[in-house]
Each structure stands twice: as C-alpha cells, then as structure tokens.
Amino acid sequence: MATIKIKQVKSKIKCPKTQKLTLEALGLKKVNAVVEHEDTPAILGMVEKVKHLVVVEK
User: Fold this and answer.
1) Total domain count for the chain?
2) Is 34 in contact with 12 (CB distance < 8 Å)?
3) How far is CA 5 from its chain centroid?
4) From residue 5, how far is each of 8, 17, 26 by CA, in Å?
5) pTM reported for the whole predicted model
6) Which is an annotated Pfam family here (predicted)?
C-alpha cells in the first residue's frame, strides 16, 4: 500500500477530547509535526475525524 504524510497545522487546544486522542494515536504531538502512515481504512478514518487540524500529502 501507499504511504501518506500527515502534518498537523492547527493546535488541538479547545478541541474535544476524542480529537486530541485521535491526534495522539496518529503520533502527532505538536503543530507542524509530520508523520508517515500506511494508506489503510483505519488511518484514513482517523484523518477524517481531525481533517480540520491536519493536511495530508500522498
């Protein structure tokens, strides 16, 4: 499968706890942090939940 790069572009302050936990599960802890993950349905679902906080590059 292909890999995707996920970059956090907005802060998680004032976000619901579930969105904060989703960012931590993706491995994003700070603004401008970048992680790479496989393009699986589980990861894409997590990205969909926090799409307003991250940018995805294929």
Assistant:
1) 1
2) no
3) 9
4) 10, 23, 11
5) 0.93
6) Ribosomal_L30
